[in-house]
Amino acid sequence: MDIDARGPRFGAAVTTVVLAVVLITGNAWLLAWQTLAFALGAAGGVGRSPYGWLFRRAVRPRLGPPTAFEAPEPPRFAQAVGLLFAGLGLVGLTLGPGWLGLAATGAALAAAFLNAAFGYCLGCEMYLLVRRVAVRVE
């Protein structure tokens, strides 16, 4: 079942703010929260993430009906990619090296910002590329 395309973009906007605060403050607890949000989105789909829940309960009812839908698999894959980078960032911020924490968090922030500001989901594009390569290999 396709999902409202505005949901993942809303989640990316919240993620952008969270990751920017992490980079400014170095708050590992906040990055742990974001890592958990990515894990829930990767495991259950973007609708099962905290930001997906917030979108469904508080934002979507105030918007008009959706006009664009998308398959749930690419955003779910993007959540898994975000989980990887946030996890690396968390390791870097808590155990070191610090540059790893900053670089991985910055990469996740850049991808979230691209989606939030321009509707370009880098993880979704990676998913489509992997699918194309996998089809050619078969």
Describe the protein in words:
There is one protein chain. This protein has one domain (3-137). The protein contains six helices and two strands, in the order βαααβααα. It has helices at residues 6-25, 28-44, 50-59, 73-94, 98-118, 122-137; strands at residues 3-4, 69-70. Helix 1 (6-25) runs antiparallel to helix 2, helix 1 (6-25) crosses helix 3 (50-59) and helix 2 runs antiparallel to helix 4. It is globular.
Structural class: mainly alpha
Count every helix, treating DSSP H or I runs of 4 or more residues as helices: 6
Strands of the largest sheet, in order across it? 1-2
Report the helical percentage. Answer: over 70%
Describe the global form.
globular
Radius of gyration from CA coordinates: 15 Å
Largest sheet features: 2 strands, antiparallel
**Low-confidence spans:** none
As for the number of domains, it is 1
Q: What's the average pLDDT? A: 95
Q: What is the succession of H and E elements?
A: EHHHEHHH
SS elements, strand count: 2
Q: How far from one another are the termini?
A: 26 Å
Residue fraction in strands: under 5%
